[in-house]
Write a structure and sequence with these properties.
four-stranded mixed β-sheet, 491 residues, TATA-Binding Protein, single chain, alpha+beta
């Protein structure tokens, strides 16, 4: 008996002009995508103006599986097999989905980026070190991870040594100085300074066909830093058109790589002016601006006082976003600074700790198990408040800058994997210990922003919107469970 499964990737959109490139990309990638199966045959065809790729596989138990990948506005995967094997279908679906996401992200080509600033040390993009990751975690998400980690550590400590009065102010006394100097943490992490005197970022991107990309990376290899030095010198001296010709000649003469001028993009971003204009709109002083030269896309702000805050921007986000998208993301961070969100989380985490030590432990009103449940509920509530604050920052940035579409677009680019992989129901995403709400909810919310519908208290508005979405998704879970129960009974 033949089993047929059809899935439409509704959250992945392909433009018509990309259809043939997509199928070509999938054809070139099938050995990597289906490496665990025996590939018998693959062929490309056209069906009603839609190009497709037909693949015949044999899985480990000997079952023959035919997969048809059809290019459409929403790509389609059709699977037919002799026996219904759920695990195999699920694996194939996941692999095709991941490959399709990757295609959408890179548009079927590989890009090499060179990013630098005038008068700054030339360094190559690198991975974040372990220390940088730890320091970043301390200030990430308005320091909420750090505050909640402190609550857990000192809760465990109180179990070991008892609730001594000497420990009562431990969390506030330790966390406060770290929060006061949190802007210095970002200074330590960052590589380059952006100032009113050295205000610009240069981004040179070179696009290559994906089939040649890996071999080109190998050819560039150890010469990458020298190439960057030469690009740096030329970028400050010549016009864009002349610079493109210089880059073309440089790669041909030194590495033996041909590159067309249309595949060379040169961007100069006046980053200081961009940040300054955003913070001026929020009526805030311009923060110190640091660049972290890593691929990971991120922006964060930290600092107790508005006139001594530091904004950290990674090169990963600079190369991925257009200027107006970057403006919207920086506006989101400005909202955090304006509302003193770090101080807010320090206050409520300290209050929770002191209430537990002074009242709950002293009065002994909770059993050990109840106290653990109380702590877990407190931390879950803290993360839920963090999610509400993220929505408030989205709303405030989109209204003040009129950039709701740009912020939604930036979120799609930064979190393309999460956007596609998020399932319809979001209940679990809301209650997990994560600082950010479901990205699909953030995008939906931004695309429906209307400044007239919000009252002056954006936190209350954001709270209402989050609770409504949680309620809607809980009801959806109950409905699905109810109808599934009915269907089982009918059987």
């Amino acid at each position: 008996m033949k089993y047929t499964y059809r899935h439409e990737f509704k959250k992945i959109r392909l433009y018509v002009e990309d259809w043939f490139n997509y199928i070509t990309f999938m054809e070139n990638s099938i050995r990597n995508i289906f490496s665990e199966y025996l590939l018998i045959e693959s062929k490309v065809g056209i069906m009603e103006n839609n190009p497709y790729l037909l693949i015949t596989l044999i899985e480990e138990n000997g079952y023959t599986i035919k997969c048809k990948i059809i290019a459409n506005i929403f790509p389609v995967l059709e699977i037919s097999c002799d026996e219904y094997v759920f695990s195999v279908i699920e694996r194939i679906l996941k692999k095709v989905e991941e490959a399709t996401i990757y295609y959408v992200k890179i548009k079927g080509s590989g890009t090499i980026y060179f990013v630098f600033t005038p008068r700054q040390q030339i360094s190559l993009t690198r991975r974040r070190s372990f220390i940088q990751k730890i320091l970043e975690k301390i200030v990430w998400g308005n320091m909420i991870f750090f505050f909640t980690f402190s609550l857990i550590v000192f809760y465990l400590l109180s179990i070991v040594v008892g609730s001594l009065y000497a420990l009562i102010l431990t969390i506030p006394l330790i966390n406060l100085p770290i929060m006061i100097f949190s802007d210095k943490i970002l200074d330590i992490i960052g590589d380059w300074d952006i100032t009113k005197y050295y205000r610009s970022i240069y981004i040179i991107s070179l696009k290559f066909p994906l089939k040649d990309y890996i071999s080109i990376l190998r050819k560039i290899g150890s010469q990458k830093k020298n190439i960057k030095k030469m690009l740096y010198i030329n970028a400050l001296s010549f016009s864009d058109n002349y610079l493109k010709q210089k880059i073309k000649n440089l790669f041909k003469d030194r590495i033996g790589i041909e590159i067309n001028e249309e595949n060379i993009t040169i961007r100069k971003i006046d980053l200081y002016s961009l940040v300054d204009s955003v913070f001026l709109r929020f009526r805030l002083p311009t923060p110190r601006i640091k660049i972290l030269n890593v691929k990971y896309p991120n922006v964060m702000i930290s600092g107790l006082m508005l006139n001594k805050s530091t904004l950290l921007i990674t090169t990963g986000i600079l190369v991925n976003l257009e200027e107006e998208e970057l403006r919207a993301v920086i506006g989101h961070e400005a909202s955090h600074a304006k509302n003193h969100d770090q101080l807010f989380f320090f206050s409520i985490s300290s209050i929770e700790y002191l209430v537990r030590i002074y009242i709950i432990n002293v009065l002994n009103i909770l059993s050990p198990i109840s106290e653990v449940i109380y702590l877990l509920l407190s931390l879950t509530t803290l993360f839920l408040i963090a999610k509400i604050i993220e929505i408030r920052a989205d709303i405030e940035a989109s209204i003040l800058l009129n950039k709701s579409i740009e912020l939604a677009s930036a979120l799609k680019k930064i979190g393309v994997n999460h956007v596609v992989k998020k399932r319809k129901n979001r209940v679990l995403s809301w209650i997990l210990w994560k600082t950010h709400p479901p990205i699909t909810f953030r995008i939906e919310n931004l695309l429906s922003v209307n400044s007239n519908q919000y009252n002056k208290n954006l936190f209350l508005t954001a709270t209402y919107m989050c609770i409504k979405d949680i309620e809607k998704n809980i009801m959806s879970v109950w409905k699905n469970a109810f109808f599934n129960t009915l269907s089982v009974r009918n059987i």
